[in-house]
Amino acid sequence: DHLPALLAAIPKAELHIHIEGSLEPEMIFALAQRNGVHLPYDSIEALRSAYAFTDLQSFLDIYYAGASVLLHEQDFYDMALAYLQRAARDNVVRAEIFFDPQTHTARGVAMETVVRGLRRACVDAHAQWGISAALILSFLRHLSEEEAFETLEQALPFLGEFIGVGLDSSELGHPPEKFARVFARCRELGLHVVAHAGEEGPPAYVWAALDVLGAERIDHGVRAVQDALLMQRLARERIPLTVCPLSNVKLRVFPDLARHSLPQLLQAGLAATINSDDPAYFGGYINDNFTQTFAALPQLDARDAWQLAHNSFAASFAPEADKRAWQ
Ligand code: ADE
Ligand code: ZN
């Protein structure tokens, strides 16, 4: 069977990766030691064995604790460079990377420290491995709209350093409407707009992400299959979904990969893509997501693989000339 080799070799874009979710336990321990941060785990193995999630919130609690070791510009640089090196190995030629500044500014780390470290890694990775990388600032939806506005204010000096904004963290109880005004301001500033919706939340959150926030892509969106009208709209308007299969199984959005909605999304003509979300926590980088998903869903074939890769470039915010060259 040639499919796994093909899936690994196809050039692709990764559009849904949280850089804090690429922090491997080994790097969490190394940074804790370097920075004198105390961790409530005795060993790398003890930390890894805490990665037994039952839903999104149970993951987020551990993910935010892991990020507490990031203090200095070099820490953000090391984290992002490690991810980009690993992604390049998976034949990712374009990565659009979420970062959660509020997780860091809440601990007294300056916006400048976060952005400078991440940007320097993007520049160096491009020089070393040819990978094109860009940043998307993601607001934490469990915090207030006022805090999102403060975060945007802190990011204004770095407007040239990120290409867009997103919305992540605890979905249920925090609908897109909560952030209508801050996203309107981001659109006025010329930023791209995406939002997590339809991961644990209902199809109504996907509608609101599109109509209230002006989202150009939907992160996850896998619950759209519960709403036939929404499926028609996503297909007609070619609105990309950044799907993360291993994440969805680990956070129990689906009981197993064989019951993932990806085949239905592709069958309905949606612009679905495959991504890793938080690879250090969910047991795989982007090629692991491709190979395990295709192994569990035998109806997916080589044409679907090429379609998914094509969708990832079409959905990316890269310059049009780059997109044409990659497709
Ligand atoms: N932050 C990191 N990963 C996330 C996910 N899968 N959903 C919501 N917020 C996140
Ligand atoms: Zn995500």
UniProtKB/TrEMBL annotation:
Site (Important for catalytic activity): H220
Residue positions binding Zn(2+): H16, H18, H196, D277
Cofactor note: Binds 1 zinc ion per subunit.
Reactions catalysed according to its record: adenine + H2O + H(+) = hypoxanthine + NH4(+)
The enzyme's E.C. designation: 3.5.4.2
Cofactor(s) the protein needs: Zn(2+)
Record key words, sorted: Hydrolase, Metal-binding, Nucleotide metabolism, Zinc
Binding site for substrate: D278
Active site per database record: E199 (proton donor)
Primary role: Catalyzes the hydrolytic deamination of adenine to hypoxanthine. Plays an important role in the purine salvage pathway and in nitrogen catabolism.
Membership in a protein family: Belongs to the metallo-dependent hydrolases superfamily. Adenosine and AMP deaminases family. Adenine deaminase type 2 subfamily.
Descriptive protein name: Adenine deaminase
Organism (species): Comamonas faecalis
